[in-house]
């Protein structure tokens, strides 16, 4: 997976490198040459490959791509990276202005937001695709882009965490800082008790520096995010020996649906991802002769991932099994040692889940049941009231996402055809190809009920890594989408030449522009289909059940009042936002299945029975639930009206709590009210 020539360098390969080459084909009128260079074995029997070349095996021969431009004179040369990142930083300023405009409901905010997103992203992509950047410059560009994009996430809410999952981990971290003990019960997210990696890091930084937990968590999440990107760059660079390949893979991964926000929030998945990628990188080094030190790093990465996040641990087991499987199928003699890493991972995860974090099984049961219900509904089974249906997606948004996925599919098929016809025996490329296929399969989950887009987004966190590598192979090496006909007139079965076609001049310039456009389109699609939802891309006034857009001073004040005035074991119910705030800032025990109590027009025997069965002690009522329908089409978790809400909760439905003799209003800040069940 070698480097490529510059757009304006049309010299022949012999001129540029000074090495003896076998020019298989020369076609100046099309700006392409095909190069083949038999490699000479070293004294120890190995073949030395330059960091800017690529080895491909074709039958018994090897072909090496030589870069048309000479190697950089200084490996530490940063090139144009400072200037490109300065332009990208200007985009950060534009997005910050858009956020400020959104908070004041300015009409221009969304336009400036999209301009800023493109300015942040596209200049870095263009520079990486030009093949002008060496290792140092590519690395700085990738890390600078990751830092700028993390700034976009932080500026959305610089003063506090607003996403429910972040609030849950804020509580877990706060409990450690207050007690100094791990494994403290967390009513907001019980499974997090047995995966303390993130909370321990946040608490450690807070206690060492005196920073508030929110500030410490923001730093921990940012560092973890940058480490993940850096390790992804290192892993692809190690596998490809190409800084262009590593850089393009990283910026392509930056177009994942949950990359910008969800995967850089203060969540235990964010903390686990660097250990996931450390394991993959160390495993690669070990399997390519790096020695037992890298096997030890692999085991360390497995252990840290296992105790940090359950889903990432499951994904790591699957990844290591895939890498081992492709190696066993393709390598001769069969390298049975490759099973060591997945065996250790499977044993570690099974032991941790089976002996320590057994509540994870119950925690994951509900989403699995919803997925099964959606599958049953999709394939003609009985419809489940809980399954729901996928919300309608605006046509423009659907078109952008569809074009991006179609572009990725074309690149995937082109690389697959190239590898099959070349009889490629590289096990890591085949593992990436299989992982890319899993990415497209996972995207089918978008249509599995109302939770489908979330499932697809969370799966893409892992499946988009191999897909990004496949896309980088296709873009950097300009794999032919429509191949030329061979001497038999065959097009799709024509075997690619035994060298690699190296593009120069005008054709390379076109490839840079087309590649930049495609990756930018993927970024736009990810922003419209990922997190936050389109309606909340910029901050603004309160919206019901809209996660970040639903957290404001009224709800936070009510939660802080609960922390001071209610016992810690109090069972408090409410809408999605009220429950998130009550169980974290309020330190109470959340009751989420209270939707029927709010939708009822009166409090009858059914409501009494439900409240009693839930052990409900208090209800939080936000009068703004009656002003507009929820963006996500559900006010409550497991909302009985999910997918069928056409008008807000009525005044009668929200006001009935004042008319029930057995209830008393104990708190009211003018917007949010709290009722106690059982009389005054």
UniProtKB/TrEMBL annotation:
Domain of life (superkingdom): Bacteria
Record field: transmembrane: 80-100, 107-126, 211-236, 256-278, 337-357, 398-416, 428-449, 461-482
Record key words, sorted: Membrane, Transmembrane, Transmembrane helix
Disordered: region residues: 1-25
Protein name (record): Glycosyltransferase RgtA/B/C/D-like domain-containing protein
Source organism of this protein record: Actinoplanes subglobosus
Taxonomic classification: Bacteria, Bacillati, Actinomycetota, Actinomycetes, Micromonosporales
